[in-house]
Amino acid sequence: MIFDIAIFAIYIVLVFAVGLYFYRKNKTSDDYYVAGRNVSSWHIGLSVVATDVGGGFSIGLGGLGFTIGLSGSWLLFTGLIGAWMAAVLLIPKVYQLPGIRKLTTLPQIFEYFYGKHVAILAGIITTIGYLGFTSSQIIAGAKLASGTFANFSFEYAVLLMGLVAIGYTILGGLKAVIYTDTFQWIILMAGLLFAGIPFGFKAIGGWNALDNILNKDLLTLTNLTWHDLVNWSVTIIPIWFVGMTLYQRIFASRGEKQAKKAWLIAGLFEWPVMAFLGVILGLFARVAFDQGLFESIGFAASASIDPELGLPILLRTVLPHGLMGLVLAAYFSAVMSTADSCLMASSGSFLTDILRFQPEGNFEMDKKSLRASQIATLSLGIISLVIALSLENVLEAMLFSYAFMVSGLLVPIIGAFYWKHATRLGALLAMTFGGTTTTLLTLFEIKWFGLDPNLFGISVAACFYICTGLIKSQQK
Fold first, then answer.
1. CA-based diameter of the chain, in Å?
2. SS (H, E, C) the chain
3. Higher-confidence position of 469 and 20
4. Which of 21-25, 124-128, 458-462 shows the lowest per-residue confidence on average (mean pLDDT)?
5. Which of 34-38, 180-184, 235-239, 333-337 has the lowest average pLDDT?
6. Helix axes 116-148, 41-68, angle to 10 degrees
7. Is 450 among the domain residues?
8. Has residue 129 been placed in a domain?
9. The domain that contains 306 carries what CATH number?
C-alpha cells in the first residue's frame, strides 16, 4: 500500500512540476487561454478526447458496464458522432469568422453575431455549466481514491482531488493542460490495457466466469431502451457544438485542417477504444462483486453497492502493489485532464465574457492580467469544490451540466451559422427559456415520455428562436 501511495504521490508532484514549467513560459493571454494557437493535430486530438471522456466518463462507464453491460458503450458512440459532425459542420464555419486569431472564448462568437448582452448571458451559462462539470470530475477522482485506498474517506478524497486539480490549473494555463493531456491519455490507455484488463480478467476466472455468472443481456449491445439512446444523443452530441473547452482547442490549433483532423482522431478514441475499455472493466467488477471478491473489504455480494464504485474497488482487489498505484495514477490523470480543462473554460468565460476583462497592448499578458486569470481560476475552483462535497453521482452531475449548457446555447450557435433570420432577441429568449426549461424539469424530476428534460429544453429554445426570427423578418 505504501508503494502504491508513493507512485501516486510522484505522479502528483510531476503534474505540479509541469504546471510550474508552463507558468514560467506563459507570456501572453494567448499562451494562458489558447496555448499560443500553435498546437499540432495529435496533441489537440488527444487533449480533446482526454477532456471529453476524462475521469467522469471513465468512472461513469464503469458504472454503466456494472449495471447494463456492453450496451453502455453506446454512451460514447454519441461522442464519436458529435466529434465527426463538428469536424464537418462547425469547424469550417468557425474558421470563416473574421478575427478568428483573436478569439479565446465561445461567447465572443455570440457577441460577433448577437451583441454584448447575448455574450454576457452565454458567459453566465458557460461559467455555471463548467463549474458543475468540474465538480463532477472532482467527485470521480474522489470515488476512485476512496474506493481504491481503504484509509481515504470520500470527503477527504474530494478535498485532495479538488486542491490538486485547482492548484495545477492555476499554474499552467491551457498550454500545460493540452500537453499533459497527451501524456495523461497515454498513461490511462496503458494502465487499462496492460494492467486493469488482464489482471481483472484473470482474477474473476476468465471467460467462463463471465459466461456463467452474468445475465446474457449484459454481454449484448441491445440491453438498453430507445429512450437511453435518444437521451444520450440529445445531451452529448450537441455539446460538441457548444463546449467551451472544445472551442478553446479550435482556437489553439494551427489552422482549420489541423483542427478537423484532431476532431476525427478524438472521435475514434472515444468509440470504440475508451467506450469498450470502460464498460468491460465495469463488467469485470460486476462479476467480482457477485463472486464475493469484495467481501473482505466490506461489500458482501448480498448487499448493495454504488455501481460507480465497482471499478475502483475491483482495481483495489485484483491488482498487485505497484500496479495499483500506476492504474490509480492513470485514472487520476483522466480526472485531471477534464477537471483542469473545465476549470479553465469556466475561468476564461467568467473573466472575459462576464467581467469583460481584457488585457491591454494587443492581448499582451502583463502581470495584472495573469494575476486576474489566476484569481478567477482559484475562486471558481473553490466553488466547484464546495459543490462537489454536496453531490454523489458522477454521471448524473455530468449529464446535467451538459444539458444545462446544451439547452441554452445549441440553438443560437447553430442558428448564427446556418439561419439567415437569426436575431438578438431570438437568441436571448432561446437561451433563457431553453436553459430554464431543462433546469426546472430536472430539479422537479419530470421526465415526459421517459425522455431527458434536455430534449424539451432544446425544443422550447428552438420555438422561441425560430418564431422570433420569422416575426422579425416579416416586419422588415
1. 74
2. CHHHHHHHHHHHHHHHHHHHHHHHHCCEHHHHHHHHHCECHHHHHHHHHHHHHHHHHHHHHHHHHHHHHHHHHHHHHHHHHHHHHHHHHHHHHHCCCCCHHHCCCCHHHHHHHHCHHHHHHHHHHHHHHHHHHHHHHHHHHHHHHHHHCCCCCHHHHHHHHHHHHHHHHHHHHHHHHHHHHHHHHHHHHHHHHHHHHHHHHHHHCHHHHHHHHCCHHHHCCCCCCHHHHHHHHHHHCCHHHHCHHHHHHHHHECCHHHHHHHHHHHHHHHHHHHHHHHHHHHHHHHHHHHHCCCHHHCCCCCCCCCHHHHHHHHHHHHCCCCHHHHHHHHHHHHHHHHHHHHHHHHHHHHHHHHCCCCCHHHHECCHHHHHHHHHHHHHHHHHHHHHHCCCCCHHHHHHHHHHHHHHHHHHHHHHHHHCCCCCHHHHHHHHHHHHHHHHHHHHCCCCHHHCCHHHHHHHHHHHHHHHHHHHHHHHC
3. 469
4. 21-25
5. 333-337
6. 60
7. no
8. no
9. 1.20.1730.10
Packing angle of the helix pair 367-388, 323-349 (nearest 10 deg): 120
* CA–CA separation, 182 and 428 (whole Å): 38
User: How far is it, in rounded angstroms, from Cα 298 to Cα 21?
Assistant: 43
> Three cell numbers at 275?
467506450
Chain-centroid distance of CA 375 in Å reads: 23
What type of residue is 89?
A: L
- Residue 64 near residue 275 (C-beta atoms within 8 A): no
* pLDDT tens for each residue of 118-173: 999 999 999 988 888 888 878 877 777 776 666 677 788 888 878 877 887 777 67
Q: Which domain holds residue 338?
A: 2-26+37-100+134-237+254-394
- Counting the structural domains of the chain, the total is 1
Domain-embedded: residue 347: yes
In the structure grid, which three cell numbers stand for residue 201, read together?
480478467
Residue 128 lies in a domain: no
pLDDT (tens digit per residue) in 293-333: 888 777 777 778 889 888 888 888 888 877 777 777 766 76
CA angle centred on 149, ends 148 and 154, rounded to 5°: 90
Model pTM?
0.87
